[in-house]
Amino acid sequence: DTNVLKSKFRGSLLGSLLGDCLGSPFEGEPITAGEKIVIQRYFDKLESPDLKGPVRSYTDDTAMMKSIAQSLIAKPEIDYKHMAKLFVKDYFLEPHRGYGPNVVDVFSKLRKSKFDDIYRPAREQFNGKGSFGNGGAMRIAPIALYFYNDYNLMVEAAKKSTEITHTNSLGVHGAVLQCIAIHKALLTDPKEEIKFDQFCPEITKKIKLVEQEDDDGLELDDDHPYEDKVKFVQHFLQTNYHEELDEEVCQNLGTSILAYDSVPTAIYCFLRALKNDIETVKTDNIFRRTIQYAITLGGDTDTIACMAGAIAGAYLGEEAINVNMAKQCESYKEIIELADQLHALVVK
Ligand code: F2R
Ligand code: MG
Ligand code: MG
Ligand code: MG
Question: Which ipTM value was assigned to this complex?
């Protein structure tokens, strides 16, 4: 049904935007029990129709997500040099959107080299190791939507769009895992229940294949870190919710700006929110529960809420997102427009 798909496209991009805008005030903050109550009140207020105040700004997560969507729309055959140019243009127009500390060097080098090899600056990061920050994963939603009909092309596009800034396999595979999770949510009928003990094994199988394919043959301590992380996600979901569990989740899954410390956590937040047993988050709305819960875990709150929101929105569709809350966020109309344009391209 094309209207359901359209709603899911909107839901996923809005989910990404809302997680970023609403999560960013808490980025890096340690979250105490008292803070969780503050966050509960903050979200209660956001749902109220008469809330006035300044719009909530988006950060690098959304700036780069918009660039990917805009590039796919302008170049339907996909043009990574065009995409790289949009990343760089947006960064130099608005450098204070909270970009990662090192990715900005890639933008400068790309500009200086006139984009002669769009992958070289990223390869040079961290003494040639490449970045494994979560910057590839945070912006991936448009790729999952645009290529929803062709899984292999989707995985390839997730890798190539990420490698413009992040070439370390942990950075690339984190983006692929996030893309796979959005894709799976998109293809699931919102009337159909998502069961974590099916969702986790399915995405585990998929990310394992990607990790095996790209295995460089070196004997690393852990050749398949994401496969193992998703197994951890499933393990935590098998445990009933209690507040101390959040600490274990933060310890084991992570909440940092590194891809392997945040992508599995975002997937966990979505699946935990579906279970509806989180005592510290009081709402009947699954979408809100997903991003509010992600924020209560602390750390890289904008990005983890953004990634969890993109998955939840892809599953539930736009209807699940409170309009008053969406209206608080900068560029929300523009994001809907981008989702509609992507949708128009894929149904053509
Ligand atoms: N920049 C931030 N948040 C931190 C500061 C804001 C906060 N409000 C505050 O008060 O301090 N958020 C944004 O950055 C994340 C995405 O970053 P991205 O694009 O991945 O950038 P980068 O620079 O490539 O990587 C981030 C850091 O990860 C570490 N790292 C990565 N690869 C590494 C490697 N191979 N070896 C060692 N360290 C590596 C470095 O510390 C990088 O600086 C999102 O959270 C976005 O919201
Ligand atoms: Mg950010
Ligand atoms: Mg190996
Ligand atoms: Mg962040």
Answer: 0.94
